[in-house]
Amino acid sequence: xxxxxxxxxxxxxxxxxxxxxxxxxxxxxxxxxxxxxxxxxxxxxxxxxxxxxxxxxxxxxxxxxxxxxxxxxxxxxxxxxxxxxxxxxxxxxxxxxxxxxxxxxxxxxxxxxxxxxxxxxxxxxxxxxxxxxxxxxxxxxxxxxxxxxxxxxxxxxxxxxxxxxxxxxxxxxxxxxxxxxxx
Length: 183
Prior knowledge:
It is built from six helices and seven strands.
């Protein structure tokens, strides 16, 4: 109930523009490491291999680190929840002068082909019975999308039922975000 209330409050604030994004130089690799460590016990309970691949360690990009941590945790948590025991979840990171790209890839149950565009809608559930069992509210991906959008970024889902998912987030460097906000 506390998680649901917190999620609803976050979305209400996003609707009213009451949540401010505070950009400061942050190390994307450190954000990834923090998210992985937070979810490692959940992965270990299901004997899921949690892998990290990528570049950008030690490079800084201007973003709201506290907020960006949230979508990473949401995407990793979902990947672990919907990957069967003994499966794999991989987090890829790439940092360039244009921004940072994160991809969370799993070999879980996947999403039916027609549904990935809808997964970012509030309260949307691919399979209502399965999500209820896992404890989902249908708000996590909506919150992730709001955070990514508020940074001028993009988030997309690619999936194949029975073969797994790939969620990709791109957060532009500040000058890229400003340019895209003016369009």
